[in-house]
Amino acid sequence: MVKNLKNIGWDKYIDVLLLVFLIGFPLVGSLFRVEMMSKCIVYIIFALSLDILWGSAGLMNLGQAIFFGLGGYVLALSYATRGGIPAFMSGYGVTEIPWFMQILHSTPVAVLLGMLIPGVVAGLLGYFIFTSKVKGVFFNIITLSLASLIELFFTNQQKYTGGANGISGLPPLSIGSEPLSVLEHYYVMLAVGLLVYLFCRWLTNSRFGMILRSVRENESRLQFFGFNPATFKLTIFVISGMIAGLAGMLYIPIHSFVSPGNIGVVFSTSVLVWLAVGGRGNLTGAMVGAFLITWMESLLSEQFADVWLLVLGFAMLAMVMFFPKGLVGTLLDWQYSRKVDRQLEQMHAEDDEMGLTENDFATAKGKV
Amino acid sequence: MELLISQSINGLSVSAMLFITALGLVIIFGLMDVVNMAHGEFIMIGAYVTYFVTTVFHLSFFAAMLSAFVVAAVFGALIEVTLIKRLYGKVAETLLATFALSIILQQLVRMAFGPEDKFVGLPMEGHFSLNGIVVPYYNVFLIVVALVILAATLGLFFKTSFGMQLRAVTKNRSISQCLGVNTARIDTLTFACGAGLAGLAGALIAPVKSVMPLMGSYYLVDGLLTVVLGGVTSIAGTAASSVVISESVTVMAGYISEITAKVLVFLIIIVLIRFKPEGLFTSEKR
Amino acid sequence: MAFLELQDVSVSFSGFLAVDQVSLSVSEGETRVIIGPNGAGKTTIIDMITGKTAPTSGKILLAGADITGLSPHEIAGKYKVGRKFQGPNLFDELSVYENIEVALSGHSSVLKTFLYRKNKAIVDEIKTILEQINLYGKREVISTSLSHGERQWLEMGMVIAQKPQLITLDEPTAGMTADETYKTGEMIKTMMKDKTVIVVEHDIDFVEQIAETVTVLHQGKLLAEGTFAEIKKNPKVVQVYLKDDDEEVA
């Protein structure tokens, strides 16, 4: 019989390479670049949060930044209101910090809420969308609309959110009263990133992950095996929202400010582009996409801001039209078809001895 | 009470604008099952055409409306043939491709004409008063145009042979093909028609809204909400949901901020479609 | 006592009566075949038993429990009713092995999917099923790459993995060659030996191969019921099928 070819997918090699590169990067990069790379790791976590949702369960969230922004704003408000009433509030006549911001003053509470609030928003939104009989595309429409409205809403609520200017002057991470150095900061980010990655790997490799892929492939069929697809979609939407919220919080100490741009449509679009370019459903594609594009963006957009967006648009269009599975997805497909070819050859050789015809297994080759 | 009445009257012209800007999206979504994320950019194209026709070439506003429709329709037909046609049936890919298209169009217009607002003058000045409530003539014009477009679209779909073929293709593509309907041509025409309507909408809103590269994203979301509430297959439903959304937002905006009103309406819509997924204004079908 | 019982079940779709007051009773361990011309309401009956369509009136009882109008996942999960669809209905981008693994019974709540461990018993179980449906050699292949007949078998294997107490098969041999059809019949006989099975079928030879009792539906109504030999001789049945043939010729 066919030998079980223990081929390790190339995606796993890329993951290891990426990790090695990130661990060693501070040895070669300047402090400025290391700081940039810290941001890149946050984007990678953000990309992973969307991949477990879109790549696994096929739920293309057009407003993933909602959760990122909510996490970011929670932590930012926690920092900003600790030293009394911040300028953006007092400017609008706020004389007392409202109770819901006072509870944020404890960092653990803020961090908890920074993940819980996005989770609850995802849960409520998901409950209404997934238990309804609306067609699949409504999920996209609703999430896009919410991203757009919440961006306007946060811009509009100046006295609590700082309006279009956002909240700035936020402190870096610190242990006790001593702020972390850029390098220490970088490795904290990397450690959190690695944990998130391992969690996502575990999740997608588990039976839960397999059921999510079944939801993506054939949701209605799954019901007849005793599964309730709505609960699976709801669960992954909440988990995805919480991880995005975590990414939003990690962003605060690096970027030192948060604005409606972090919660709205444009940022939601960016993460879509990363996944469209890198590929979905294997985690690696999301990370490669996020890494390549944000890195290139920070190198190129300093000089060519307008052209950069144009290039991004064309890159996205080209990927959708010609490589819909993204860079890593296309690579893995190629590897899979080579593997099937080899297995078929083996079967062929064995079956020749048994006198079977070629047609028996030629069908297996159809998939690319 | 007076505020309530004046806001309701304002709401009518807002409804007309929403209907005009949403209609193209509904036609393409409802009939072709394509969510055109670049819908707002077709509106933008119409608005820029209007700016050039009226402000730069000093031609009449009606000439601008006509050229906005034609330019956007031709452009839509090109997009359909080159992009959309290759992606039929792939929902995520179509969304992404049109999303990319919207980014590209925004940037191209920005690079060509600059990021700043363009000014388009009102084609008709003046207003009349109704119990002290000021109503500009142009708002009345918008309402009339919306009604004319509604009637014309319904006529096109239910009284012409193109409309009949179109409805046949929507019901059953392969059988229509067998009966000799050129489905590829119908698809292109439908998309062009939806894009053209977006262009026309751009012309109509240009005098009262800002004309700039990023203006489109605003109309896309409002249009999508209208589709969700009105149901995807009904033009009359779109008209009804435009009125419901605009009236509730405008009336509420008399008392709270417009954005908060919009967020509230959005939340209500989400709860509503949980219990009536096919939209408020369509009857349930099997 | 009957294991599955349909009591005066009717369903109408916007005025059209697809199933009209059908009563049916299947005893435990029985293999029941439902035949009838196109539009007789065969698939609709399966739809109602598995929860895809709720009856407009009437009751469906399974092992004494009322399952009328429950959702598909409740009927499949709690009452263990398996369904093979007309034309293979699989998880396309998943491998053959994964398709079977998804269908495994007893691990279908969100919590249970997190706690699931693939132990030796599960591995053996999947292997046995894959061998029974002749697909062990292609277990790593993505299911879209299989031939039509293989896809039908894979779906049968998935239904077996579900360990149902009632199996419904909607035209399991559709699109198969005569040889494949015969193999399928033997599969049903061996793999589903002790189960209660309801089969909707067109192929008369296949019906003869597997049927214990045959129910004939015509235009949503119950026309006849009996052994294959009885049904073959029933004048009403003969007339319905002959009339149908005439129409097709005309």
Biggest beta-sheet profile of chain B? 2 strands, antiparallel
Largest sheet of chain A: 2 strands, antiparallel
Work out the helix count of chain B.
Answer: 11
Shape of chain B: globular
Q: What percentage of residues of chain A falls in helices of 4 or more residues?
A: over 70%
Largest beta sheet: strand ordering of chain A:
1-2
Percentage of residues in helical conformation of chain B: over 70%
Please tell me what the overall shape of chain A is: globular
Record field, number of beta strands of chain A:
2
Structural category of chain B: mainly alpha
> Biggest interface in this structure?
A-B, 42 and 41 residues
**How many angstroms does the end-to-end distance of chain A come to?**
23 Å
Relative strand content of chain B: under 5%
What class, by secondary structure content of chain A?
mainly alpha
Poorly predicted regions of chain B are none
DSSP, total strands of chain B: 2
- End-to-end Cα distance of chain B: 44 Å
Give the SSE order of chain A as H and E letters: HHHHHHHHEEHHHHHHHH
Describe this structure in words.
The complex is a heterotrimer of chains A (368), B (286) and C (250). By secondary structure, chain A is mainly α. The relative contact order of chain A is 0.17. In chain A, strand 1 and strand 2 (178-179) form a beta hairpin. Helix content of chain A is 73%, strand content 1%. Chain A is globular and about 85 Å long. Chain A has 16 helices and two strands. The longest helix of chain A has 29 residues, at 326-354. Chain B is mostly helical. Chain B is built from eleven helices and two strands; from the N terminus they run H-H-H-H-E-E-H-H-H-H-H-H-H. Chain B has helices at residues 2-32, 39-56, 61-82, 91-113, 137-159, 161-171, 173-178, 183-205, 216-230, 235-253, 258-275; strands at residues 127-130, 133-136. In chain B, strands 1-2 form a two-stranded antiparallel sheet. In chain B, a hairpin with a 2-residue loop joins strand 1 (127-130) and strand 2. In chain B, helix 3 runs antiparallel to helix 8 (183-205). Chain B is globular, with a radius of gyration of 19 Å. The N and C termini of chain B lie far apart (44 Å). Chain C is an alpha/beta fold. In chain C, the strands form two sheets. In chain C, strands 6-7-8-3-9-10 form a six-stranded mixed beta sheet, with helices on both faces. In chain C, strands 2-1-4-5 form a four-stranded antiparallel beta sheet, with helices on one face. Chain C is globular and about 55 Å long. In chain C, 46% of the residues are buried.
